[in-house]
Amino acid sequence: MPNPTPQSPLKVVRRSPSYWRVTFxxxxxxxxxxxxFAALADLVDRMEADEDLKVVVFDSADxxxxxxxxxxxxxxxxxxxxxxxxxxxRMARSRVITIASVRGRxxxxxxxxxxxxDMRFASKEKAVLGQPEVGxxxxxxxxxxxxxxxxxxxxxxxxIIAAADDFDAETAERxxxxxxxxPDAELDAYVDRVATxxxxxxxxxxxxxxxxxxxxxxxxxxxxxxxxxxxxxxxxWPEAQERVRRLLQRGxxxxxxxxxxxxxxxxxx
Length: 269
Hints:
The protein has about 270 residues and is α/β, with parallel strands linked by helices.
């Protein structure tokens, strides 16, 4: 019998020809694996090819984890597909408006995914954002060091990244990290209303205003590549590898207390 086709970590629902809803579903805790990178690259291909599409909303099938963080267990085979930075750059330049609807934990590259979206809305009660990389002995590599300062300023970006702590949605809203923190019971309806409203407008002005705003708000490719290169180098540091090993032994990447309270628990290293 043929091997079963691997399940995609993304579920796409077409609410209308101009509005898609994309749900992350990569059990057990929505880790960002290379399979997720490949699926996102394929999704952006489909977004760019669809002449009717105007807005895409991203959410999660797991109410506790929007996107947990990067999978720190090395893959069995080298990944040769598009990098996250390539896909994020294409999302940013795309004429399609992208919206992150955050319920659960969005840390590391999970947070960096939301930063690559055009808008971010989050549940007051259930959203947790963080950049825990420094606490794991490494550095962010998916755009946090470049995109966060443009949103929150230098001091707050250093607080978020250097302290490697968790942040609730109301603080993230106050810092400018997200557009708005909403009561959990209102999040889906509010985001759906925004997306439906955008989808009702003509494609040409939407594409033009996004392109114009991009001119003064996107980090340079050179800066993004420097962050990615530093992250890749950091993964080879012996002290970082030892720190990651201890975190994995303590339950990182498993549904449990460490992942639920990673901002607090990572400081115990």
